[in-house]
Amino acid sequence: MAALLVAGSFLGYSKPHRSSFTLQTGKGKSCRLFSSDYSRRKSRNREQSYYLYHYTPRVKMCASSTISASTTAPDSYDKSKRVWIWTESQQVMAAAVERGWNTFLFSSKQRQLASDWSSIAFIYPLFVEGGEVVDRDNKRVATIFEVSTPQELLQLLPEDAKAENFILDLLDWQVIPAENIVAAFQGSQKTVFAISKTPLEAQVFLEVLEHGLGGVIMKSEDVESILELKGYFDRRNEASNLLGLTKATVTQVQVAGMGDRVCVDLCSLMRPGEGLLVGSFARGLFLVHSECLESNYIASRPFRVNAGPVHAYVSVPGGKTCYLSELKAGKEVLVVDQKGQTRTAIVGRVKIETRSLILVEAKIHSDDQDPYSIFLQNAETVALVPPCQGSSLQQTSIPVTSLKVGDEILLRVQGGARHTGIEIQEFVVER
């Protein structure tokens, strides 16, 4: 017996589905894998093919001014964007199927290859015929447009497509043409794909004008490209989830002396209630507020978090941590708000300067033996985030200069043992 992981999105399940497969020997002693429900699936493959292809939800390329990202959790990024794979490598195919991507493009001369792959994995093959993409029944599912000049781009209109999907092959510029397409197709029910040769190209297409194209076709013979693209989707999916934050009570506030503290300047603006998760121990990170609030003595800096000393941990995408001293321009960090909504942001600059520090300790329960702690610069612009107080107008920050024993703040409690920022199961004591 063997097990093959079949993507839940392709079968119609909400989660990945594991099926049992039996190894059978056919003519010529060739081996094939047959699932226990193979005959049942085979009999209804034709009627399902239309549903299976259309199952993955699509995102409309239009903006909404009434939805706030800070209060509304978006759908899974995996479900809002579509990924098709164009490859001749069976290793790439296997890696893609394992990660939930089952739609594959083949040239018109590769129908036998598509048939061979269909015998070992549950895939949905499409075939490139001239300027069109068709399914096994030669039904058109997409139209391909090569764009190499501004004039060709201007001729591309939503109502011109003979199928519900567009596939763009951008032969010259990429970013500006993709932005123009997103603008032209906003509100359209059609899905626009772009052919990408690298994960970075795919990321550009998926993010242009914030909303991005509806999908990408990853054309690659390299397994690493699939892994990197899935890693990108995992990071985006993490940002769509609510992070569990715990209420803790301040047990000590003490001036600690001088130290090298780190200001993290992001390439994104932060709103009241948002900040970074930082702490002396990975097992408990404090939500440190950004400098987005106005004051009489200094202008606000909504891109900055005065995060703490160089030794402190900071939360980064992928459930990992790194030291503040390791941050530099181009790295990603996890921005979290008062309700636990997360998003990723790129570090634009890091400033390390010697400043006076204050030690803050907190406990979740009064009888806890080991408190959680953080060092922060002793300044009025540095603050921690308190818990939400219902839906009414609430306090979003408490300056460390006003912090006192008994105040409530927010913590992210997690595993404390780390190896290169990755949580591991290991005995560890941190004090």
Automatic annotation (TrEMBL):
Record has Amino-acid biosynthesis as a keyword: yes
Residues annotated as domain 3-dehydroquinate synthase N-terminal: 81-232
Domain of life, per lineage: Eukaryota
Annotated Pfam families: DHQS, DHQS_2nd
GO BP of this protein: amino acid biosynthetic process; aromatic amino acid family biosynthetic process
Start and end residues of each 3-dehydroquinate synthase C-terminal domain: 248-431
Alphabetical UniProt keywords: Amino-acid biosynthesis, Aromatic amino acid biosynthesis
Single annotated GO MF: 3-dehydroquinate synthase activity
InterPro entries: DHQS (IPR002812), DHQS/DOIS_N (IPR030960), DHQS_C (IPR056179)
Metal-binding recorded as keyword: no
PANTHER family for this protein: 3-DEHYDROQUINATE SYNTHASE (PTHR33563:SF1), PTHR33563
Protein name: 3-dehydroquinate synthase domain-containing protein
Organism: Turnera subulata
